[in-house]
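quick one: guanosine-5'-diphosphate bound model?
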Amino acid sequence: MAISKKICLVGDFSVGKTSLIRRFVDDQFSDEYLSTVGVKLSRKLVEVDATADNAARQVELLIWDIEGQTQFKAIAPSYLQGAKGAIIVADVKRDDTLVHLQNHVDLFVKINPKGTIIIALNKADLVTPTLLATLLDKYALQRHNPRVIDTYATSAKTGQAVNVIFKQLATAILADP
Ligand code: GDP
Ligand code: MG
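yep, here:
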């Protein structure tokens, strides 16, 4: 049986957290905005490639998603507790969500000092490659916080880099128990 690890999707309201999970778990996307209150848990088995020290193996990601989050409600620490990793998401069309990435990183690291983070600059399908390159350079937070391992431009709509971020996070979590 595969071991299970909790990860959280973190980020401002409407940046695409739920959509990234749906793309990864069900390979689906919807333009409709569905907001219900509570926390939703999804599970997915991920194959982690063999490394120099480890044989290939599986990990079951328990993916936590806050639903019905609003601009005014802060993320509850209990949501983040026990998470081995986080995908912290911003919307490339909304500057405020990009600026807030740092706050989300700080909060997650405060609660999980050994947690692993990947940054997703989501909705990459809506902007030019030139702007994306600029944003990727500006918000590559791995330069500022050792718990952040990488930053990607993603799109839940096209699927761009979606499998990559979940798989890289799973691999890093297994390598650093
Ligand atoms: P959440 O509040 O962070 O969970 O955001 P949602 O996943 O509910 O997405 C909010 C809105 O953005 C919805 O209308 C989605 O269809 C849309 N959306 C999410 N990801 C993308 C994306 O990668 N590209 C585009 N064009 N729209 C997206
Ligand atoms: Mg959501």
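The first strand starts at residue 3 and ends at 11.
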